[in-house]
Amino acid sequence: MNRLSLPPLSAQELKRTVDWAIASRRSVRAFLPTAVAREEVEAILDIARFSASGVNMQPWRVHVVTGAVKERLSMAIAAIDNDPQLNGDMQDPYEYYPREWVAPYVDRRRKVGWDLYGLLGIAKGDKQRMHQQHGRNYRFFDAPVGLLFTLDRVLEQGSLLDYGMFLQSVMVAARGRGLHTCPQAAFLKYHKVISEVLGIPAGQMLVCGMSLGYADPASIENTLVTAREPVSAFTIFHHNNKETCP
Predict the structure, then answer these.
(1) Which of 13, 31, 38, 93 might form a disulfide with 213, Cβ 3.0–4.6 angstroms?
(2) Which range of residues forms the domain containing residue 193?
């Protein structure tokens, strides 16, 4: 792709298309078994590689799992996830979530959790069904393609910022092709298992996983749409030495 070429759409069509791809991206938790061609996955990554990164370091490393390898990985994780003793020894490679949850973040976390469980009919305190639902992460929610993203351990926090832009590009490029995704921090706990199954070198750290495929329109969990704060809630405009809201 020529990065200096003119846009293929009119200004209005281009704006609507890009806005749609970003706004329609959401975490899908039930996928159809419909296969996604390797060429399609490569095309998504081929676009995402143009994401911004500090001094063009391009810190991303991607492991794509499908078929028997994906199944073997899911089974290896499930064997530990379903064993309380083994599961207790697992630790994340880095702190993704805050050590202390405070408002408004804890409120948003609770809402999305209970909204999802409410759709699925999982009652508060039903630990068995909660565990089963959480365990679906490790089957990539039945998506045909799983993505595991790693980062060289010598890199610092700035590369995680770069990685976030890359992940967003992957998800937006997927939407442009009619596909959906679910980025998953749930895989972090099992980074050692993932590294062993996939032969990932010790010098690479797991950043997150992601499910990729076609959303199952009949699944109730895919009706979940999370609320987002308006621009006025998180933005301050500074002009003429005065702070103004939108």
Answers:
(1) 31
(2) 29-98+140-219
